[in-house]
Q: What sequence folds into this?
């Protein structure tokens, strides 16, 4: 009996080793279990829609052999989600949504992790930004508004979300480009900004097309210009700010990042899968519905993009007095 | 008028298709359950269940999600009344008198009134939504930062109404709540305040965790102290005692219609939320009552007013969503997201471009409200039996379910620690006889007050006359100041009168 016990122990050990070996072989066949996509914001927001649409399409079109599981970890301007995913070092089964806050939250010192703790995986699209006024506003063009603002410093109110957000950065870019001083009013969310604009409580608002276009189509707001080099394909009658002499260019990226140091083959699999996804009808429809500009970038290109904007944001945020001096 | 009638008929044609009726029922059923479960409120509930609507048409999807939303407002009152545990944030006010009624052996009428008040107010709100939604849109946006400040500041001065006979302790509790509301990242300056380096505190102290801790966990701690006895064992559970009697109806009549109207109109304002509505309705009812001292001891108006208000608010919240595409709070923001997943983008043209969608939804809300009352009235008898469960079984269950619910909201363990921390704070407060409700409400209102105050002053470049020169905010600010200083005036007046009397 004793011998049998020893034998079975030996067998068990051998079995475990065999299992481990099998695991090692299977590891090259990434993914062998579902991949978790952590959304850095709450349900129903832009990043949530982005990730859920993607997960549904990838499963439906069988782009990956395993499903993507979507999980919201909102809070701390995205910091909670970023720290959580960065902590999964080298694990290719975790991805996190990356938009502006992916760079600005670490820069503002709100989370201990930063760009170096992640592997950029892919970028999918850009959110465009627009400057709009109530239809009843006396400002017919961006130039008129800026001329007025130049003559009356800090008199023109601009609504947007939390300081450090895309909205606030857009406002800052206008101030820099036109050499004016605006009065930025912070609201809790895009909906509240729109309500304040419609009620005539603020003069202008920064919005992305997803939030603004329905109000524009129904004639409630006038869009003075887009923060882009060229006019938008979906809205060719709206001028850019640049053609009105205000050189303010801004886009928000929509991408995914993984923890730093994931295996190269896993990264390759993900890149291929996401490139395939950007060719699907579901993705095209998502971009059209949400007025996004398609902009796929692979890991290397996305990494370069993030580096470049990280530098730009560092300057902007420092100028806005949002980077703590240590 | 005829036009609305035609539209409503169109709506009912849409809403009475078999799948819309079925999913309306499923929606309100899930909503009731989500309301009953502590921690998980309508916002999380809708978010979790969005994927089940993927296969549906946009109209069926929104009918289901809206059902979850107003269904949760029904269900939230159940645990508040029975075990002093707020099922969702808007039912904190229902606890104050509801739980006391249950303790006095009248859990049935409290639950019954909560359900019927929800039904009546819910229906009033839908009728108002049907008749005046488009013109109301301009009213909703007429509230700018100064008006929000005036409204929430007035709410803050009403906090003393929650203190029973101890106004000073109520104010102290409220001030602590205001201090806690300062924790977190300040949106206006981007500075992290009082977070002590914790990332989880960047968004501030979670309201629902604090509420469950202060009320339910502290209740459990107090019960551990004494040999466990069944408080409710003497409750009459006969079928007749389950329903509010004629006197209850007489007492609640005023509260019901005032609660409905207040809830609806405040509910239409973006950013205010059902919690604020139920609080203001309760406070107003107490101010108007002939016997304000009885509030908090188990009066039925104290259940009818907030329950009516939070259900009417759910209807009111649909106004800015459907007419402008602007969500008024967390739950409607998630619904807006769901609609966008379905490729439908609400905006000012929704009423004209998708009438079958809008009117189908409105008609389904009439149907859903009837479902809810049919569903909830028989459940009253069942819920009351819950009180027969021995405490030593019930309490660990409450603890586990609360902790799970809190965790599930944001998938964050930290929120559970918040709950336990405030459980201990609540225990100490009970011992020292401090009311917990003012602290909880100050946390909610404090953030609104601060935000709108600073927005207003940014717009006016620091000039406080902005609060007095605009008609709505002027009136509300003056009312708030009068309410705040009225005790002082009363004292001064009596001092002034007293010597006069002695002379005569």
A:
């Amino acid at each position: 009996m004793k011998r049998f016990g020893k034998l079975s122990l030996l067998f068990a050990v051998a079995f475990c080793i065999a299992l481990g070996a099998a695991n090692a072989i299977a590891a090259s066949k990434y993914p062998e279990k579902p991949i978790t996509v952590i959304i850095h914001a709450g349900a129903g927001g832009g990043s949530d829609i982005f990730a859920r649409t993607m997960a549904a399409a990838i499963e439906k079109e069988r782009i990956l052999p395993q499903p993507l599981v979507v999980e919201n970890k909102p809070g701390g301007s995205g910091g909670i989600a970023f720290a959580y995913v960065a902590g999964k070092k080298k694990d290719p089964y975790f991805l996190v949504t990356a938009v502006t806050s992916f760079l600005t939250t670490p820069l503002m010192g709100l989370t201990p992790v930063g760009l170096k703790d992640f592997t950029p995986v892919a970028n999918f699209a850009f959110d465009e930004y627009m400057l709009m006024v109530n239809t009843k506003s006396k400002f017919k063009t961006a130039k008129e508004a800026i001329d007025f603002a130049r003559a009356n410093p800090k008199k023109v109110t601009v609504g947007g979300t939390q300081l450090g957000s895309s909205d606030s950065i857009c406002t800052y870019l206008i101030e820099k480009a036109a050499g004016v001083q605006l009065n930025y009013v912070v609201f809790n969310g895009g909906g509240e900004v729109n309500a304040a604009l419609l009620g005539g409580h603020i003069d202008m608002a920064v919005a992305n097309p997803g939030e603004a276009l329905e109000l524009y189509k129904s004639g409630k707001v006038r869009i003075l210009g887009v923060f882009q080099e060229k006019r938008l394909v979906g809205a060719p009658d709206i001028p850019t700010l640049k053609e009105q002499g205000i050189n303010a260019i801004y886009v928000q990226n929509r991408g995914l990042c993984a923890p730093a140091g994931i295996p190269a083959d896993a990264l390759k699999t993900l890149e291929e899968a996401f490139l395939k996804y950007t060719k699907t009808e579901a993705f095209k429809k998502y971009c059209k519905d949400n007025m996004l500009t398609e902009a796929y970038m692979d890991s290397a290109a996305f990494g370069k993009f993030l580096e470049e904007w990280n530098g730009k944001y560092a300057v902007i945020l420092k100028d806005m007095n949002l980077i703590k001096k240590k | 008028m005829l036009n609305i009638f035609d539209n409503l008929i169109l709506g009912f044609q849409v809403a009475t298709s078999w799948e819309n009726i079925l999913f309306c029922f499923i929606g309100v059923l899930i909503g009731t359950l989500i309301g009953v479960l502590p921690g998980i409120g309508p916002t999380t509930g809708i978010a979790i269940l969005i994927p089940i609507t993927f296969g549906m048409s946009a109209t069926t999807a929104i009918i289901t999600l809206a059902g979850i939303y107003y269904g949760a407002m029904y269900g939230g009152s159940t645990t508040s009344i029975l075990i002093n545990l707020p099922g969702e944030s808007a039912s904190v006010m229902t606890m104050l008198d509801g739980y006391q009624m249950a303790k006095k052996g009248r859990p049935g009428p409290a639950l019954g009134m909560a359900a019927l008040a929800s039904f009546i107010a819910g229906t009033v709100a839908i009728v108002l939504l049907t008749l005046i939604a488009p013109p109301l849109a301009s009213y909703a946006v007429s509230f700018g930062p100064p008006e929000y400040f005036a409204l929430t500041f007035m709410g803050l001065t009403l906090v003393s109404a929650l203190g029973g006979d101890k106004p000073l302790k109520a104010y102290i509790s409220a001030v602590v709540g205001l201090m806690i509301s300062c924790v977190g990242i300040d949106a206006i300056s981007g500075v992290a305040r009082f977070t002590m380096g914790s990332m989880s505190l960047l968004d501030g102290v979670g309201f629902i965790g604090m509420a469950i801790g202060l009320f339910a966990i502290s209740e459990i701690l107090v019960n551990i102290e004494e040999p466990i006895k069944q408080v409710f064992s003497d409750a009459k559970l006969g079928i007749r005692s389950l329903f509010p009697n004629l006197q209850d109806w007489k007492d609640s009549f005023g509260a019901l219609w005032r609660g409905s109207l207040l809830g609806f109109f405040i509910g239409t304002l973006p950013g205010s939320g059902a919690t604020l509505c139920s609080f203001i309705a309760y406070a107003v009812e107490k101010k108007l009552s002939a016997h304000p001292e009885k509030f908090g001891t188990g009066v039925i108006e104290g259940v009818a007013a907030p329950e009516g208000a939070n259900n009417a608010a759910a209807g009111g919240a649909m106004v800015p969503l459907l007419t402008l595409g602007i969500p008024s709070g967390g739950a409607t923001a998630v619904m807006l997201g769901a609609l966008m997943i379905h490729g439908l983008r609400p905006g000012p043209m929704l009423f004209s471009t998708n009438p079958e969608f809008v009117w189908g939804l409105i008609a389904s809300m009439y149907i859903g409200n009837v479902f809810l009352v049919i569903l909830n009235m028989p459940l009253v008898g069942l819920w009351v039996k819950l009180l027969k469960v021995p405490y030593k079984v019930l309490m660990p269950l409450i603890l586990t379910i609360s902790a799970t619910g809190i965790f599930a909201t944001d998938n964050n363990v930290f929120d559970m620690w918040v709950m336990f921390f405030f459980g201990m704070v609540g225990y100490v407060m009970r011992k020292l006889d401090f009311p917990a409700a003012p602290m909880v409400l100050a946390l909610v209102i404090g953030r609104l007050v601060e935000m709108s105050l600073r927005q207003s002053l940014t717009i006016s470049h620091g000039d406080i006359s902005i609060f007095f020169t605009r008609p709505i905010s002027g009136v509300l600010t003056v009312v708030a100041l009068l309410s705040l200083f009225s005790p002082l005036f009363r004292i001064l007046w009596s001092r002034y009168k007293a010597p006069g009397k002695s002379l005569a």
User: Anything to note?
Assistant: The two ends of chain B are 65 Å apart (CA to CA).
